[in-house]
Automatic annotation (TrEMBL):
Residue ranges annotated for the Pre-mRNA-splicing factor Syf1/CRNKL1-like C-terminal HAT-repeats domain, each copy included: 382-756
Protein name (database record): Pre-mRNA-splicing factor SYF1
SMART domains with a match to the protein in the record: HAT (SM00386)
Major localization class: nucleus
Start-end of Polar residues biased regions: 773-788
Gene symbol of the encoding locus: cwf3
Organism: Schizosaccharomyces osmophilus
Family (UniProt): Belongs to the crooked-neck family.
């Protein structure tokens, strides 16, 4: 349109209301504020007029972002919901506006974003691609993210090679987007390209998944892709890739071995798949992985055989192949336990128990059994072995012994004695097993010589049995286990003198145990060397401290008493004194009682009683009551009841409070039998201070019965009641006794604390039966029983019966 025509159109569209804005623009044509006010005032005008105003504003201010953005939004809003097919020229005009705006505003990402969204609605793919490329060239890299999101969305919508081309460009900028690219490739069934992209990911030293996948998940997806589409994979060494995954993910090795075998099965390479299965079975490290591979291998063999059998092979060659694979399947199933044993041994080659179990899995095949034993002895590290490596050697020797080759068994035992075991006891057991084999064939002297050579040592040995820095062979002569066996062997086939030498040798080496002392003493006693056996006991009590010395002293004293029966009385008394010297109080009770019996039976009763009186001071508090009972019986039996009074008094002084009340009851009962009523009452009074009336009801009942029978209601009964009340008050102020009393109540209360329960028990306490108060009744004190029952009970009433 010519300039004259534009002026005519301009003048036709203007009206009287535009005059102020036009005059203002004549004065300042480059004022952004003036143009914005003008455009805002004409928002409701016709499209033609608004377009004209925006065009004039853009021509005057071509670099104004606000005017161009508002103009383009107005043009986009006008075309919203329209179709390019029905009105292509309108879309092309808007394209032209965008291109003019972007001449100066090409650094504005919002403008590009608006243009791209608009142009994506048009069917011209080339145009859209060029606009995207122009946007990426114009904007800095930091502002490319939004552009690429639109670009990828458009590419996925178009699909085909165009989408692949776009994604290849994008992953050069953002390598982590390769997972989305792989998904696109899978959707497009471009399996080879997807596999190569997976391989590129797996070859990266570090890869952080944008979708939160672990490395194993990526490996699993890759393996599934290869297994499902093996024919489409090219230029990838699949087996090498899978083996790298197996080496990397050892806990998932079973699944990867199975996937590799399935890859070859789909390609038709059955023999290769079979070898892969076998390699997986013999290399996996866990039972779970083994189960996966083994089950898959069995399933493959069964399916292959079923397929061949259904085809009914007519040729002899096919029949032979079926028979071969059938025998292979049977062998695979038969050796499952052996394969599992292999897995466990691969986890720890030093597992001796599994090696031993392996010998039982091959049945009666002697050649395989020998091979397993030889392999195990070669591979097991004795210092790291789990289980008894010595037993493994012994079982190997026993195997040869069972088949009749004793000489070979001896050779194995000889080698076994030179192995650096974990412990000395293992080595000792090997020597013992060797000697047992010799004894089985009546080679007694050979067995004695074997054990004698094993324990041979210098006259004085300073070697410690627990010094792990030394080999077991050096410390073997300090092993009590092999010495005990040597002693048993010597007692069975040797002489008394040779056996005594062995026992003495153990004392020299300082390896004698309490059991050795007892055995040596019994051995000498059985052979008539009584005094020598006593000397052994004396050596034992000198070697060992308490409590072991207590057991030895007890045996020694009993044996001495049985032997001499008081003939060497003074010697026996000295032994008892030695035993008690330095004896801890917790062990002295038994010796004191034995000493007292010894004095009573073979000495003087008075000395026996003095021994028990000394024991009352030396034994522990918990043992004093039992000693007191013994002492009381001896004094009463030998000197009568009156002589026990000092014993009772002494017991009351030294026993604890819980035991004193029982002693007082017994003492009072004895005095009552002797007719000493006043002394008995005084004893009851003394013992009452240890007895809470609300807890120790038996004591107070006994005292009450005593007063009913022997007391005076005017004096003694009232005095007992007064004492009872004072004792009750005394114990009521003691927290420990309050808790004890509450715990002893027969009927539990549902509410209230311990003090409330105590007060309630005091209020409900029963009166002494048989008595009434002296101020009641016509007889001044004593009432008939039936009268008392008809009147309210008095807390202090006593029934005299």
């Amino acid at each position: 349109m010519s300039e004259t025509a534009q002026l005519k159109v301009h003048s036709d569209l203007l009206d009287i209301e535009d005059e102020p804005f036009e005059l203002e623009l004549l004065r300042s044509p480059y004022s952004l504020r003036s143009w914005l006010r003008y455009l805002s005032a004409r928002e409701n005008s016709t499209l033609e007029k608004r377009v004209l105003l925006y065009e004039r504003a853009c021509s005057e201010l071509p670099g104004s972002y606000k005017i161009w953005k508002a103009y383009l939004e107005m043009r986009l809003a006008h075309l919203e919901g329209g179709s390019f097919v029905s009105n292509p020229q309108a879309f092309l005009d808007v394209n032209s506006c965008f291109e003019r705006a972007l001449v100066l505003l090409h650094r504005m990402p919002v403008m590009w974003h608006m243009y791209l969204k608009f142009v994506m609605q048009q069917p011209d793919v080339t145009k859209v691609r060029k606009v995207f490329d122009a946007a990426l060239r114009a904007l800095p890299v930091t502002q490319h993210d939004d552009i690429w999101m639109l670009y990828l969305e458009f590419a996925e919508e178009i699909g085909g090679p165009f989408c692949i081309h776009v994604y290849r460009r994008y992953i050069q900028l953002e390598p982590r987007a390769v997972e989305s690219y792989i998904e696109v490739l899978v959707n497009l069934e471009l399996w080879n390209e997807a596999a190569h992209q997976y391989l590129d990911i797996l070859n990266r030293p570090v890869f952080l998944s944008s979708k939160g996948k672990s490395n194993y998940q990526i490996w699993n997806e890759f393996s599934q892709l290869i297994v499902q589409h093996p024919e489409d994979i090219e230029q990838i060494d699949v087996e090498r890739v899978f083996r790298a995954g197996i080496h990397r993910f050892t806990d998932q090795a079973g699944k990867l071995w199975t996937s590799l075998a399935q890859y070859y099965i789909r390609l038709g390479y059955y023999e290769k798949a079979r070898s892969i299965f076998y390699e997986g079975i013999t290399t996996v490290m866990t039972v779970r992985n083994f189960t996966q591979v083994f089950d898959a291998a069995v399933e493959f063999e069964e399916q292959w055989l079923s397929m061949r059998v259904e085809n009914k092979p007519s040729q002899l060659k096919d029949e032979i192949g079926v028979d071969y694979h059938l025998s292979w399947l049977e062998k695979l199933l038969d050796q499952r336990s052996l394969y599992i044993n292999d897995v466990i041994l691969r986890q720890n080659i030093n597992n001796v128990d599994e090696w031993q179990r392996r010998t039982t899995l091959v049945g009666d095949d002697r050649e395989k059994i020998v091979q397993i034993y030889a392999e195990g002895l070669q591979k097991i590290n004795p210092k790291l072995s789990i289980g008894s490596f010595g037993s493994f050697f012994s079982n190997f020797a026993k195997f040869y012994e069972d088949i009749g080759d004793v000489e070979q068994a001896k050779v194995i035992y000889e080698k076994a004695t030179n192995v650096p075991y974990n412990s000395v006891n293992e080595l000792a057991q090997v020597w013992i097993n060797w000697a047992e084999m010799e004894l089985k064939y009546q080679n007694f002297e050979t067995a004695r010589k074997l054990i004698g050579d094993a324990v041979q040592a210098p006259k004085r040995s300073n070697i410690s049995f627990f010094d792990e820095a030394l080999s077991p062979q050096v410390r073997l002569h300090k092993s009590a286990k092999i010495w005990m066996y040597y002693l048993d062997l010597e007692e069975s086939v040797g002489s008394v003198d040779s056996t005594r030498k062995l026992y003495d040798r153990m004392f020299e080496l300082k390896i004698a145990t309490p059991q050795v002392v007892v055995n040596y003493a019994n051995f000498l006693e059985e052979n008539g060397f009584y005094e020598d056996s006593f000397k052994i006991y004396e050596r034992g009590v000198a070697l060992f401290s308490y409590p072991v010395a207590f057991e030895l002293w007890t045996l020694y004293l009993v044996k001495f008493i049985e032997r001499y029966k008081g003939k060497q009385f003074e010697r026996g008394r000295d032994l008892f004194e030695q035993a008690l010297e330095g004896c801890p109080s917790e062990f002295s009770k038994s010796i004191y009682l034995l000493y007292a019996d010894y004095e009573e039976n073979y000495g003087k009763v008075k000395r026996s009683i003095s021994v028990l009186e000394k024991a009352l001071k030396d034994v522990t508090p918990k043992d004093r009551l039992s000693v007191f009972n013994v002492l009381l019986l001896k004094v009463a039996f030998n000197y009568g009841a009156l002589a026990t009074r000092p014993i009772y008094e002494r017991a009351i002084e030294i026993l604890n409070d819980e035991e004193v009340k029982d002693v007082c009851l017994r003492y009072a009962e004895m005095e009552t039998r002797l007719g000493e009523i006043d002394r008995a009452r005084a004893i009851f009074t003394h013992g009452s201070q240890y007895c809470d009336p609300r807890v120790e009801t038996e004591y107070w009942q006994r005292w009450q019965d005593f007063e009913v029978k022997y007391g005076n209601p005017e004096e003694t009964v009232k005095e007992m009641l007064r004492i009872k009340r004072s004792i009750q008050v005394k114990f009521s102020t003691n927290t420990l006794n309050i808790a004890k009393q509450v715990a002893s109540m027969e009927t539990p209360l549902t509410s209230g604390d311990a003090m409330e329960q105590l007060e309630l028990s005091q209020e409900n306490s029963k009166p002494l039966a048989g008595f009434v108060a002296s101020s009641t009744g016509p007889m001044g004190g004593i009432q008939q029983t039936n009268v008392v029952e008809q009147e309210p009970k008095n807390p202090d009433e006593i029934d005299l019966g």
